[in-house]
Amino acid sequence: MDVAYTFSGPVAEQLRRSPGFRISAHRSNAVFFLDFLDQWEPKSPWADRRVRLAASTAVDRKAINEAEFLGFAGLTNSIVPRHMEFALPLDPPAFDPQRARQLLTEAGFPNGFDGES
Length: 117
Description:
The chain has 117 residues and is an all-alpha fold. It has helices at 9-17, 49-57, 61-69, 97-106.
């Protein structure tokens, strides 16, 4: 096969280890993000910015990028890919579970909460 793309996760890792295959990155406009729709509901925990920041800080983007995209995905803190014209180069918050717990405690959820609340 001369060309193939959009392999991810275990399949991509298996291809990476296969002799005769070369893996290279391609640019994509795809962006994967979480949308906290309940943030607009005043009684929802998601209405508190600290809770949303805690959730974002608890996501290990680098590990997900390595596991799913072999490290080729671009990390951002925006729904607009960095390589697009006029995109703001916003870095995501660093993975920091301790900070995430601190933010949840400050928001009044020291033991967490049911995310569907």
